[in-house]
C-alpha cells in the first residue's frame, strides 16, 4: 500500500490542500473534474443567480448524476461481459464435445478400415 499523498490543488479559484492514499495524479484528476463541473455551471446565468448553497447543491446533484450514470453503464458492461463469458464457456464445451465425437468417429473409421482389410484378405484367399 502506498503512503498518504498530500497535494495542493486549485478548485473554484481557491487553493486547497487535499490528501489521500491515491496517487497525486489521481487527486489532481479529481480536482480537475470538480473544476470542470464548476466551469460548466458558471457559464449559465441561472446558476449565477443562485445563492452559494444552491450552487453547491446543484453541483453535487450533477456529480451524483454523473456517478450513477457511470455506475449503471459499468453494471451493464459487467452483465454483457458475464454473458459473453458464459457464451465462451458454452462454446468451449461444445468444442470439446465435438472433438470427442470427431475422435470417436476417427476411431470407428480406423476400426472399419481394419475390418474391411481383413475381409478383403479373407476374400482373396
Q: TL;DR?
A:
With 125 residues, this protein is mainly alpha-helical.
Write up this protein.
This protein is mainly alpha-helical. The chain has a domain at 1-43. It is 77% helix and 11% strand. Strands 1-2 form a two-stranded antiparallel ribbon. It is rod-shaped, with a radius of gyration of 34 Å. The relative contact order is 0.05. The model has no long low-confidence stretch (mean pLDDT 94).
* Count of DSSP-assigned helices: 3
CA gyration radius, whole angstroms: 34 Å
* Strand segment tally: 2
Q: Which stretches are poorly predicted, pLDDT < 50 over at least 5 residues? A: none
Overall mean pLDDT: 94
The major pleated sheet works out as:
2 strands, antiparallel
Order of helices and strands: EEHHH
Helix content percent band: over 70%
Strand adjacency order, main sheet: 1-2
Write a concise keyword list for the protein shown above.
single chain; 125 residues; mainly alpha; two-stranded antiparallel ribbon
Strand and helix layout:
Elements: E1 5-11, E2 14-20, H1 24-42, H2 45-49, H3 52-123
Antiparallel strand pairs: 1-2
Amino acid at each position: 500500500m502506498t503512503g498518504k499523498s498530500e497535494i495542493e490543488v486549485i478548485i473554484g479559484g481557491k487553493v486547497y490542500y487535499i490528501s489521500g492514499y491515491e496517487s497525486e495524479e489521481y487527486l489532481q484528476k479529481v480536482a480537475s473534474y470538480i473544476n470542470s463541473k464548476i466551469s460548466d455551471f458558471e457559464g449559465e446565468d441561472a446558476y449565477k443567480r443562485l445563492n452559494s448553497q444552491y450552487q453547491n447543491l446543484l453541483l453535487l446533484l450533477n456529480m451524483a448524476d454523473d456517478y450513477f450514470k457511470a455506475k449503471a453503464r459499468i453494471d451493464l458492461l459487467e452483465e454483457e461481459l458475464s454473458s459473453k463469458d458464459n457464451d465462451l464457456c458454452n462454446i468451449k464445451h461444445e468444442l470439446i464435445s465435438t472433438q470427442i465425437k470427431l475422435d470417436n468417429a476417427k476411431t470407428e473409421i480406423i476400426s472399419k478400415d481394419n475390418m474391411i482389410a481383413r475381409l478383403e484378405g479373407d476374400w482373396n484367399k
